[in-house]
Amino acid sequence: MMSANNTVPKTAPKTALVTGAAARIGASIAQALHARGCDVLLHYNSSQEAAQRLADRLNTARSRSAFVVSAELSSPAGVEHLAGATRSRFSALDILVNNASRFYPTQPGETRAWQWDDLLNSNLRGPYFLVQALLGELRAAQGVVINLVDIHAERPMRGHAVYCISKAGIAMMTRALAKELAPEIRVNGVAPGAILWPENEQLGNNKQGTRQAILSRTALGRPGEPADIAGAVCYLALDAPYITGQILTVDGGRSLNM
């Protein structure tokens, strides 16, 4: 129905929480969702300045559409803090993107218990309990959860056993929660391949050779861009209402040769 002044009533923007949104792939995802009209809550752990700069840019484009919150997602208290901050900002949550994770090598025979706890808590337990804490808000919006997985959830990466185990867990979490939370909430995943090289350069001593070896096994012969992942997230979140329980691999064909 048209309003009295013959204009179409404005609808409220969709809401999105992106974890690990201060930089790299997380920032690209947040910017892409914002460009599609979403209000975004940008989670960060320690990168406060980067997160605030991103929020300022987004708010320049559209006032009061981006907000920041800090939380340590490897701890239950941090998860509850982030969930509470989300509830105070949004009455309903359309999109939850579990992007934040940790990545570093672990060797069998040398793995420390704290490394196991750190990787599993941040990469798997945190996302699971964040979904659980925000079930009410996600159900209110008939929302969607997008988990960032990894192609190494299925094909292990040498020297990174615990990281791969954590990502295999979140792949199963994606499928299991899709079944448990349907039909109200959709749950999907995106599994990146060679998009950005690790900031801490955990590629061994011969970094350039390792990079070239990875690209030689990638069908398209080049690394991807953060925008490739952001586009996949936007598709699953906003353009695919009949897709749930799926993990979209965005790896330039690398998994064809692994």
Quick synopsis:
The protein is built from eight helices and seven strands. By secondary structure, the protein is an alpha/beta fold. Helix 3 (76-89) packs parallel to helix 4.
What would your notes on this structure say?
The chain is α/β, with parallel strands linked by helices and 258 residues long. It has one domain: NAD(P)-binding Rossmann-like Domain (Rossmann fold, 3-Layer(aba) Sandwich), CATH 3.40.50.720. It has helices spanning 24-35, 48-61, 76-89, 113-133, 135-141, 161-181, 207-216, 226-239, and strands at 15-18, 39-44, 66-70, 95-98, 144-148, 186-192, 247-250. A 7-stranded parallel sheet has the order 3-2-1-4-5-6-7, sandwiched between helices. Helix 3 (76-89) packs parallel to helix 4 (113-133) and helix 4 runs parallel beside helix 6. It is globular, with a radius of gyration of 19 Å.
Relevant terms:
single chain; alpha/beta; Rossmann fold; 8 helices; globular
What is the residue-mean pLDDT, rounded to a whole number? 91
Question: Uncertain segments of ≥5 residues (pLDDT<50)?
Answer: none
Largest pleated sheet = 7 strands, parallel
Under CATH, the topology is which? Rossmann fold
Please tally the helical runs, counting DSSP H or I stretches of 4 or more residues.
8
Write the layout of secondary structure elements.
Blueprint: E1 15-18, H1 24-35, E2 39-44, H2 48-61, E3 66-70, H3 76-89, E4 95-98, H4 113-133, H5 135-141, E5 144-148, H6 161-181, E6 186-192, H7 207-216, H8 226-239, E7 247-250
Parallel strand pairs: 1-2, 1-4, 2-3, 4-5, 5-6, 6-7
Helix pairs in contact: 1-8, 3-4, 4-6
